[in-house]
């Protein structure tokens, strides 16, 4: 059985963190990833729980986004804060979800996360463009459950 530390190699993790940094160069939105082995909850409910646990609702524009994955369960969810929900259409995350799903399906876990991060960044950019003086409000490091 894999441990939560083993989901990614150090190299893969660096690539994903680099993708988060890249995405956040174009948007004020703050993207985080949380990985864990398994959850008994629905991915969406657990994502919301982790979102609050990580205090991701402390951004100025309330535009934090959590990509949550329960790796062994093969389930994931994308959870955005209320600033995003107020600004965007209901299907806003669909293309991000689809991009991740198609990579996950073919076993490309790292690429799925990278594509998800970059797609989320592109989407957020339309509503929350990067602005001068932007701060990195939430860590870009991957969090593990
Ligand atoms: Ca920022
Ligand atoms: Ca950040």
Structure summarized in a few sentences:
The protein has 145 residues and is α/β, with parallel strands linked by helices. It has helices at 10-24, 43-53, 82-87, 94-105, 109-127, and strands spanning 30-36, 64-70, 75-80, 143-144.
Relevant terms:
4 strands; four-stranded mixed beta sheet; 15% strand; alpha/beta; globular; binds calcium ion; 43% helix
Report on this model:
The structure is a single chain. The protein is of the alpha/beta class and 145 residues long. It contains five helices and four strands. Strands 3-2-1-4 form a four-stranded mixed beta sheet, sandwiched between helices. The longest helix has 19 residues, at 109-127. It is globular and about 40 Å long. The relative contact order is 0.25. It binds calcium ion (2 copies). One calcium ion is lined by residues 24, 28, 30, 134-137.
């Amino acid at each position: 059985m894999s441990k939560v530390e083993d989901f990614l190699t150090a190299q893969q993790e660096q690539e994903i963190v680099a993708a988060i940094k890249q995405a956040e160069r174009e948007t004020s939105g703050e993207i985080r990833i949380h990985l864990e082995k398994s959850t008994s909850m629905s991915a969406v409910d657990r994502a919301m729980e982790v979102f609050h646990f990580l205090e991701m609702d402390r951004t100025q524009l309330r535009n934090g986004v959590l990509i949550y994955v329960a790796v062994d369960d093969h389930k994931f969810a994308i959870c955005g804060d209320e600033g995003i929900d107020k600004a965007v259409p209901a299907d806003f995350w669909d293309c991000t979800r689809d991009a991740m799903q198609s990579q996950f399906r073919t076993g490309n876990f790292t690429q799925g996360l990278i594509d998800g991060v970059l797609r989320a960044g592109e989407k957020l950019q339309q509503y929350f463009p990067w602005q001068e003086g932007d701060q990195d409000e939430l860590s870009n490091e991957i969090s593990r459950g």
